[in-house]
What we know:
The complex is a heterodimer. By secondary structure, chain A is mainly α. Chain A is built from 23 helices and six strands. In chain A, a hairpin with a 2-residue loop joins strand 1 and strand 2 (75-77). In chain A, helix 2 runs antiparallel to helix 3 (36-53). The N and C termini of chain A lie far apart (47 Å). In chain B, strand 3 and strand 4 (250-251) form a beta hairpin. By secondary structure, chain B is mainly alpha-helical. Chain B folds into two domains: 122-477 and 516-665, no CATH class; 675-746, no CATH class. In chain B, 67% of the residues lie in helices and 4% in strands. Chain B starts with 5 loop residues before the first helix and ends with a helix. Chain B has helices at 6-31, 36-61, 126-149, 156-175, 179-197, 204-235, 257-261, 269-286, 295-298, 304-313, 318-325, 327-331, 334-355, 361-380, 385-415, 428-431, 433-447, 453-469, 471-480, 489-498, 501-510, 522-551, 570-593, 595-601, 609-612, 622-643, 659-665, 670-718, 723-746; strands at 77-91, 114-124, 243-244, 250-251.
Amino acid sequence: MPTALETFLLVRPEIVLVGGAIAAFLGGAFAGVRRGWLVAVAAIAAALFIAWAQPGAGLLAADAAGRGSIVSGPVAIDPFSVYVRFTVLGLGLVLALVQAGDIFPAAVSRGATVWRGGTCEEAGTFLLLLAGLALVGVADDLVLLFAGLELVSIPTYVLLALKRTDSRGQEASLKYFFLSLVASALFLYALVCLYGIGGSTRFDAIAAGLRAGGDGMAMALLPVALGMAMAGAAFRLAAVPMHFYAPDVYEGTSPGNAAVLSTLPKVAGVVVLLRLVGLAIPGPLGDGTVAPGAAAYTDLFWQLAAVLAALTMTVGNVMALVQTNLRRLLACSSIAHAGYLLTGIAVAAAAAAVGTGGGRDAIAADSTWLAGLGGATATLFYLATYALATIGIFAAIAYLGHRWPEWTSGSGPRPPRQEITSVEDLDGLSGTNPVAAFAIAVFLLSLAGIPPLPGFWGKLTLAISALEVDWNAPITLGSRRAAFVALAVILVLNAAIAAAYYLRIIAAMYFRSTKRGVQADGGLAAGIAMLACLVLVGLVTLQPRGLFRTSAAAGGAISRTPVVAAADAMPGSLATPVATNR
Amino acid sequence: MQPLSPATLLVLVPLLPLVGAVLTLALGRVLGSRAHLPAIAGIAAAATVAVMLLLGTSNQVGSAHGPHAEPVRPVEMITTLWQWAAVQDAYVPPASSAAAIPGTAVGGAGSAARAFTIPVALRLDPLTATLLAIITCIGLVVAVYSIGYMHHDPGYPRFFAVFSLFVFSMSMLVAASNFLVVYVFWEAVGACSYLLIGFWFTKPEAARAAKKAFLVNRVGDFGLAIATFLLWMTYGTLDFHDTLSPDGTILPGILGQTRLADAGGIVGGAVGTAICLCLLLAACGKSAQLPLHVWLPDAMEGPTPASALIHAATMVTAGIYLVARSAPLFVACPDALAAVSIVGATTALVAGLIATVQNDLKRVLAYSTISQLGYMFASLGTGTLLGFTAAIFHLVTHAFFKALLFLGAGSVMHSMGGVIDMRRFGGLRRVMPITAATFLIGSLALAGVAPFSGFFSKDEILATLHAKGWPNAHGEHHDAAPASHASLSLPLERVRSTSAPAAMRLASHARSPAPAAILDTPETFRTLFWMALATAGLTAFYTFRAVFMTFTGPTRVPDEAGHHAHESPPVMALPLMILAVPSAVAGWWLFSSQWLAHFLTATPSFSAPAVMATAVPHAFHMDLAIQGSLAAAIGIVIAAIGHLGRRSDGPQMERFLGPLQTFFANRCYIDQLYAGLVVRPLEGLAFAAALFDRFVIDGLVNGIARLPAALGGVVRRLQAGLLQRYALAGVMGVLAIVFVLAWRLRG
């Protein structure tokens, strides 16, 4: 595979991140830099700047004329990867601040009894993680995709192990490590099968293989490829059947790590799945021929994603109902949200399945298909709204830090500080920390999908995109439309169930009282992260169109085959309900 | 420094009070007794800006007189702050009703799908500019008054925060250029009103009154919501103004100039009438018209300054504004228009009758407000240009003198230790001379005594009703009109000649294969005219009854007053004096110069051909003036016979009304009627529903609610924390998936 200098130039932001990581490691080891998170923030800011100045950044602009992509070697810069890159860098900026707010007891009490997060080691590891994730976004090749995914996973193990050195933390990091290895191994099987279908590691070759497919060999490989790929993605999304680790790991680790775990791997999972959906979208070469391989692929894909979506959101929500530990509860909530994300992916896959039926012109004229690509758009939009709210909550928890112990000077030695763990620890927060309480309430309401917060727009787009599949078809038992209507109903029911436990936290903060306040010892950085999330949530509330347009530009480009018509039709629309009438 | 653009100024008018409200809320505890500062600073700045805007817009419209008189052109300016949300291709116009979408010929296909957008857009036109100036200026005066009135109240910062918030909401309501945004702020002023009526929420009556106001208003809001839906279904937009879409086509707004210039642009018929009646229902709720007037008298439980600003001068005129703004819609539906007039005149008469036997000073004023609002509706319902401008004219003068009267009543209440029953007062003019003098000016204006302001606005309303009732006789007035006053008609003629006369004819004739109007007949308006005239007499009677009972006769001060019984402090007296000036002279000035009427004509809604066609030369109708004055004089004389110089707690002359007195004193039993017809059945239903809910639904729901929790328990058991089991479950799951997929692919 030719790898030119140009290829490296295209991944300049990722190179900057890695450079920042090296600087952080060296600075921590030899220059005694204490505040590694400042290095991380600086590196991410530099990467953002470079990504902004780089050709291709304009691809996301709503009115970008020459929509297309830049491909060089295994790297593709298209609206989708640019969107992923900016999402990753933006979330990374906030997450670096959250990480700095972690405080946790040291394993061996030598000197200080607590460690403060955001050291150089953590910052460097975190930067590597971000670089890996951004590479997943730009990958146009199975090898780079897998390398990127592993560059996400390995720093995550290190982060988990670095942060908390008590037994709970070690247990959590070990669990994550082993299960992640299993998932990676399964995913590698999927890649092997895809290679078998396409005879190449390149996406376009695999896509061509799928479309030309239909011979027995490729068909035999499909179930394994899809099932195993779904396993790899499901682990990162924390979706059924690879969701078991989430509550244990979140509970055992620090708020900053939980914030990372609940968002960045999900980005990776969504990117992988959408790229896989994109494989089956026919390009200009489709010229009207029916491609049985691609049709089977997308059919299986949407059925699988839809079933897993329904299972995942239900399992996550019912598990969350019985949780009392705050981080376990949020872990279950993140499982549920993985289910919502899978809904959008199922819609995207179903839409791609429709598209395989005809040539490009037919596709462009088929508004069902255009509307269906809303699945990808809705997923990306939902991902952003979910990540903002979740990071905000963990930032708030990190900022709040510890409770005051129940202790008077007469009752013996001062007991150790207690970390905020359970929902009851937030009792009466509105009286002691009104700003944090308000922020948490807003984030929770957004997650619950209460209008007009971003989470509502997200759920609305997801539900609408599901209802739009085969909009004109009658709802008959067993039809695809019926399946997606059912999925939308399940989504809405789950949103109702979810409101119960989100509101429980809000009730604790606003309607209960406590004599012990919280210390709010998480530091300025976490507080800033919380407020930044609050401001961003407020912006999306007031102006959902901006984010939606960007997601639409990206969602229209999940396949590198130019889908010009789709991209032109989507911007600025929240939904296209009646467009199919003409 | 570069002068601020009108767009910036327009945004500042609502923004400054909002900032004031937020600051008052945030710093309330710190500022303590100085909590009024941010609010008053914000409102004062907004008032300055609003007056600047008014003058600027007035310059743009041009002069009505003199050699520089120009033809009246619609004047409007739109500032879109941001696009709140948009749904692409949300509206596909039905092919059959191409008439509903004029202007699409400008570069676009009539049946192309269009987006549903909610722009947060502000507009500036003469109507908005006038109302903005009234809202902020009267708001400022009342806010200053409140410094004295609310002194020592524990909720001092809260009062000013909500007060400021109200000024913000009301400014947004009249400045918004989209029905949905109007709806949002329609609710917002309702919420502010709720908060201020229930300001002393520990008082049960106040809490109940607030609840009642809110609930009754909901009925009206329901009308507005339905109207909004219908408008969207009919017109495919909710904007007032035209918008230029990116591809160069003009998307005509409901009240935009493109549509207004088109003769067939406004939908009449059943749908149009339904829209207008829903809008009328909304206006009835907010403006306390029959049958939704019951909340306003109870709203007097709130602090008096709030009553003065919200429940007399501004918020209750939102209904007038809505109907005036939608004037072209109403003009296309003559029956709906007539309904507006009928509702208005009936309300005016009934409320006037009830007011005659009230003994609570503030309630007299409350019923008087309802009655005067009815006057404005009667005027709007004539559907003529004069009718619309007269309604706004009366709105303006009424805002001044009714705010003055309320503040005067508040001043009395303040110094009488919270007592407001007129039977316990007497001769207060000796105790509080300033209040008495200003109250008298306000009363003269309200009673319609020349040359106070109410006389002129009321005269115009009577004239417009008269013109509809006796269309032929009205022609004579034209001839009798002095030549100097005819100048207004000149520019209008010119407009008519320049803007496609064919369209004009279409507007007035072609719309009719007119279904024979049921309500819109001269006979109706003749009846309404006599009702209005009778109301004028009643108004004079109850107003002066209140004046005589309170301020004349032997001096009597209730015991609650204690040592407070003296003139109010300057901070309260000054606003009274300030408001007394426009109450006395504004009418004469606005009438003689015709500035307001001319200015308002440039509002797009009023400059629509259909409305313009009804323009008549400005004239002073001596016979009507005499009739009106006579009615007022009779009212005052009867009030004087009954109450001047008598003890107010003695037997009153109203006892001669016999059973009617009981009927009116019980507010025509309307509250009881509603209680019997609506409240009791609903309560019964609610009780039954509660039983059903407790025993049937709860059992069901609790059962279902236990289901997820039980399921959660099961799932939790799977979550044993054992790594091996997790890995096993995961791998088994994946294998299951692969096998199912393979099986499906084969099958």
